[in-house]
Amino acid sequence: MNFTAARRHLVEQGWAVLRTGLCFADGGAVDHTKILSLARRFGAPSRRDAGREIWPVRPSRTDAAATLSERAGAVDFHTDAAYRSRPEDLVCLFVVRPAADGGLTLLLDAATVDAELRRHALGERVLAALGEPRWGWRVPEAFSGGPADVSPRAAVMPGDGTVRWRGDNLVGLTPEQRKVATWFGSLLKVVPGAVRLEHRPGDVIVIDNHRVMHGRTSFQDAARLLLRVRLWAS
What we know:
By secondary structure, the chain is α+β, with helices and mostly antiparallel strands. It is built from five helices and 14 strands. It has helices at about 5-15, 30-40, 110-115, 125-130, 175-190; strands at about 15-20, 25, 30, 45, 55, 75-80, 90-95, 105-110, 135, 170, 195, 205-210, 210-215, 225-234. The strands form four sheets. Strands 1, 4, 5, 7, 12 and 14 form a six-stranded antiparallel beta sheet that branches. A four-stranded antiparallel beta sheet has the order 6-13-8-11. The longest helix is centred in the last third of the chain and has 14 residues, at about 175-190. The chain starts with a helix and ends with a strand.
C-alpha cells in the first residue's frame, strides 16, 4: 500500500485509490479497527452524522425517505454533507463486496464542470447563480439524530475551485433556482471527463469532498457493500 503516492494523487487530482487486497468484513462483522486505522492515514474520522464513524453503503431500504447510501440504483453526482455548515474534507469508501451488476464509483471534479459550463450559452448565468450563497439542503432522515449543525445558505460553486452539491434534497428554492438546479443536474449527467472506477474487494477510494463530486452507476445486487468514513483532513 503506497500511502505516499495516494496522498500525492489526492492533492494533484482530488482522489486516490489504494488497492489493499484486505478484507474489511468477516461475514456480517465489520473490522472497525482495520478500517479506522487505514482511514486515519488521511485524516480524523468524523462521527457527526448518526453518531457513527463507519457507515454501511448498501441497499437496505426502498422507502422514499431512504438516503443515497441506503438504496440500490444509480446515484447522481454530489458531495457529502452539503447540508452541514462545514462538510467534512474527505470521503473514504472501503470496498467489501462489489455489485455483480454495476454500482461503479463515478468521480467528477469542480474544475471540469466549471470549464464545461463556460462552453454553454447559459453557462455564465448558471455559474453566477451557483456562486450565490443562497442554496440550502435538508438533513436526510437517517442523519437527523446527530448534532443540529445545519448549513446556512451556501454557494454551490463559489468560484474558488470547490463545489457543494446534492440535487435530491434541496430546500427553499426560488423558481429561478429550481430552473438552474434542473439544468445543472442535467448537465452533470453528460459532462465529458468523468472518471469511472472499477471496484475490487479491499479497494479504498479517497475523495476530496470539496473539489470532487462522486456518484455511481446503477445496480440492483443486494449483496453490494461499501463502508464509508468521512474525514477531517489532518
